[in-house]
Design brief:
By secondary structure, the protein is α+β, with helices and mostly antiparallel strands. It is built from 6 helices and 9 strands. The longest helix has 39 residues. The N and C termini lie far apart (76 Å). Keywords: Membrane, Transmembrane, Transmembrane helix.
C-alpha cells in the first residue's frame, strides 16, 4: 500500500465523524452553549455584568489521538450510511457511492496495477462529490443533534451526549437544567491553603479555563473578598478510663479550634486562582429576581 495515499483515504473516511463532533460540541453559534447578562448590586452601586462563561471550553483536539479516532468512528459510520442513501440516486450529478472494493484494495495492496490506477483516476471526481456530500450531511446532523439535545437537556440524563466536561457544566450553570435560564451570576467560595495559614475567598465568577485534558485549569473571580483562618491548638489533660486494657494514667490530647478574621475586600478587579491552589470550591447559583425584590 502507498502509505501516504492510504492515509489520505483513511482521513477522508473518518473526517465526517470528526466534523460531526465539532459541530455537535461547538455548533454554528459563536456564543457556544451559554450566555447571560445581569445587573449585579455591589455595595451602594451596581454593575452591568455580562457573564463571560458563554462558550464551551472543551478541547476536542486536546484528547489523545486514539480517543479522537474511537469517538469519530460511530458518527462517521452513520454519516456514511445516510449519505449513501441520499446520493445513490444522484449519479448524474457526478456524485455517487464510492467503490469500497477499490478503497479496500488501496488500503491493503502493496501496489496498484495499471487498471486499478485508471479506475482510481476515473472515480476521483465522483469521490470528491461524495466527500463534499459527506461534509454537508455530517455538519447538518451535528448541528441538528446539538440543537435538539441542548433544547431538551437530554445531555443531563445521558452523559454520553454531553457537550463538554463536568467542570464546564458546573461552572457555566448547564447542570441546573431549565433553571439555568434564570441564572444571573455564579458566586464562588474558595478555600486556599499555604504553609502558614488558610484563606477563604468569595467572589463572582468572571471566567474559567480548562486544561489540555479538559480538567479545570484556573478560575477568574471579580469583586473578591478574603478572610484568614487561624488554627489554634489547645492542650488538655484527661484521665484514661479503667475499662481500657492499659493502666489508669494521665494522658495529653490536642484539640483544634479555628478563628476567622473579618472579610477584607481585594482592590484588584479580577483575581485568578490556579486549580493547584484550590483546596475546596463551593458554587452558588444566583437568580437575582429571587434574591432582590422588585422595587
Amino acid at each position: 500500500m502507498n502509505i501516504a495515499f492510504g492515509a489520505v483515504v483513511i482521513v477522508a473516511l473518518l473526517y465526517p465523524g470528526v466534523l460531526f463532533r465539532v459541530l455537535y460540541v461547538r455548533g454554528f453559534d459563536v456564543k457556544g452553549i451559554f450566555g447571560a447578562s445581569a445587573t449585579v448590586p455591589l455595595g451602594k452601586g451596581q454593575i452591568q455584568f455580562n457573564r463571560n462563561v458563554s462558550k464551551s471550553k472543551f478541547r476536542i483536539f486536546g484528547q489523545a489521538i486514539w480517543e479522537q479516532v474511537i469517538a469519530s468512528l460511530l458518527p462517521a459510520f452513520f454519516v456514511h450510511l445516510l449519505t449513501i442513501q441520499l446520493v445513490s440516486g444522484f449519479g448524474h450529478w457526478r456524485v455517487s457511492v464510492p467503490d469500497y472494493g477499490l478503497v479496500y484494495r488501496i488500503l491493503v495492496a502493496d501496489r496498484l496495477d495499471a487498471a486499478a490506477i485508471e479506475q482510481v483516476t476515473d472515480s476521483l471526481p465522483r469521490f470528491i462529490g461524495y466527500f463534499l456530500a459527506l461534509l454537508v450531511v455530517a455538519s447538518s446532523i451535528g448541528a441538528v443533534c446539538r440543537t435538539v439535545v441542548k433544547r431538551y437537556y437530554i445531555d443531563l440524563f445521558i452523559k454520553l451526549l454531553r457537550f463538554s466536561s463536568d467542570w464546564d457544566y458546573l461552572l457555566s450553570g448547564r447542570i441546573l437544567g431549565k433553571a439555568e435560564k434564570t441564572l444571573d451570576v455564579i458566586w464562588i467560595h474558595v478555600l486556599s491553603e499555604t504553609k502558614e495559614q488558610s484563606i477563604i475567598y468569595d467572589g463572582f465568577l468572571w471566567d474559567y479555563e480548562l486544561s489540555d485534558n479538559n480538567g479545570l485549569d484556573r478560575i477568574i473571580l471579580f469583586n473578591v473578598s478574603k478572610r484568614f483562618i487561624h488554627k489554634e491548638i489547645s492542650g488538655f489533660k484527661y484521665q484514661q478510663s479503667a475499662n481500657f486494657d492499659s493502666p489508669l494514667g494521665e494522658k495529653f490530647s490536642n484539640k483544634e479550634a479555628f478563628s476567622y478574621d473579618e472579610s477584607e475586600e481585594i482592590n484588584e478587579q479580577l483575581v485568578v486562582f490556579p486549580y493547584g491552589q484550590l483546596k475546596n470550591l463551593t458554587i452558588t447559583y444566583v437568580d437575582l429576581a429571587e434574591v432582590i425584590p422588585a422595587s
